[in-house]
Each structure stands twice: as structure tokens, then as C-alpha cells.
Amino acid sequence: MKLNLLPLSFLATLAACHPSTKNSTAAITHPSINTTSTNGGTAPSPGLAIVQNNCAEPIYLWSVGSSVSVEIPVPGGAHYSETFRHDQKTGGVSLKVTRVAHGLYSSAPQTVFAYNVVGDSVWYDLSDVFGDPFKGSSVTLLPSEPVIRWSDGVPPVGSMVRVVGITEDLTLTFC
């Protein structure tokens, strides 16, 4: 199934209209990725980290590396996506998702989709902190082997670390 991706400009407009971002000077920035390899060829284009909201209510997302994006509300039926990127200071990036506005700053329960680009691979992980915001709803992260699927919205015990090739898209779906 091919997802119909929303343009980043639409998401920036949504974020700019959200009360939490009015009069904010913060902006979502996604550093360009160097696609020139050392052998003079062109490296494959990186895939996308996609967060799909199939819940009836909005969810709230922040892209966190060495800086924190503005709060990005993702309405029910919509999604957010960003190209996999390597953060020069932290190495990895985390997409932090809550069910409440301003949740990142109020210690609300968060689901954290973390990834790190290493060469031609993307190492990724899914976890909850401060509680389980999607308890009672399904949470899946695909493709993953073994599959990451929390049918009750609560992570199982054990590691959720996986790896895919840099060109793969990863889709985290709520509800």
C-alpha cells in the first residue's frame, strides 16, 4: 500500500497555526544529507520515518536530535514524515509522540521512535516513557523483523531494536 504523503510545507503550516507555536521563532529544520559517496558515485536516497495517525483524535509529535522541532499536531487520518538523517551532535533522532498538546514539556506519557543512520543502515527502536500513551490501542512499526506490534498499545518486555537498509521507509502506525 502506497501512502499519500503530506508535503512538509503543509505540516509546517499546521504547526504554525497551532496555539503552542504561535509567536514562536522555532522552525522545523531537516539538514541536507550528503549523497556523494567516497568512490565518486551517488549513495542511495534515504528512506522516510513516517508516523501515521489512524486514531480519531490528533496526536502531537516532536522531532528531537541536537535541537527540538516545534510541536507538530497530526490530525486523525493524517501522517508526518521526515527523511532519515544523521544528527551531527547526537548521532540519532527521536520522534516523540504524545496524545496531549504540550506533552513533551509536561512529562506526559510518550511513545518514542528513535533512529540512527549508520552507513547504509538505519538502526531503530520503539519504546514508551512516562507511561503508555496508546494503552488500549494498537501500535505497529513496519517493516520490522521480528514484527513490532503492540496490539494493546503497551510494549512487551525486551529489546525493540531493529535494523533496515537506508533506502527503506519505516511506518509507525497508531490505532
Automatic annotation (TrEMBL):
Residues 1-17 form the signal peptide. It comes from the Eukaryota. Keywords: Signal. It comes from Aspergillus taichungensis. It holds the Pfam family Bys1. PANTHER family: BYS1 FAMILY PROTEIN (AFU_ORTHOLOGUE AFUA_2G04533), DOMAIN PROTEIN, PUTATIVE (AFU_ORTHOLOGUE AFUA_5G01990)-RELATED-RELATED. This is Bys1 family protein. The keyword Signal applies.
